[in-house]
Amino acid sequence: MAKGIEMREAHFPGRAPIDAYGNGGFRFADMSHRGSVLMLPSGIYGWDVAEGDPLTIEKFRRVLDEAQAIEVLLVGTGREIRPLPADLKATLRAANISSDPMNTGAAVRTYNVMLAESRAVAAALIAV
After folding, report:
1. Is the pTM here over 0.70, yes or no?
2. Does residue 3 fall inside a structural domain?
3. Membrane-spanning regions, if any (predicted)?
4. CA distance 50 to 53
């Protein structure tokens, strides 16, 4: 019996700088991904968040699962800077994660610098 195409969750098992962003996605590690991404110590994951979506604690569950390896979380909120909801900020703080919202372009640039410095950084980047 023939099997159809198997769709798996987007995941790159490693850390990589972002080479480019825009047109609704990101380029890294000689690959491209359409949509938003989570850049975590365990790898790079597709993230089901679009510009303007509510930033709920549940959307950051994977980040919280890796809290022991993250000191700073950069949140690229799209074209415009959006503050993080108080409950999300408090939950991240309780997990010893410093969160910093900024527009996605600034978050990409900051992430690349911090990654090059081998800092314990993660990023939640909304595609623009």
Report:
1. yes
2. no
3. none
4. 6
Question: What are the backbone dihedrals phi and psi of residue 96, each rounded to the nearest 5 degrees, phi first?
Answer: 60, 35
Residues of the domain holding 26: 11-125
Amino acid at 23: N
Domain total in the chain: 1
User: Sheet containing 18-22: which strands, arranged edge to edge?
Assistant: 18-22, 25-28, 31-34
Residue 7 half-sphere exposure toward CB, CA atoms < 13 A: 1
Per DSSP, 69 falls in state: G
Q: Which residues contact 62 (CB under 8 A, 6 or more apart)?
A: 38, 40, 45
Task: Quick: pLDDT tens for 6-29.
Answer: 445 667 888 999 999 999 999 999
Which of 47, 45, 20 has its CA nearest to residue 32? Answer: 20
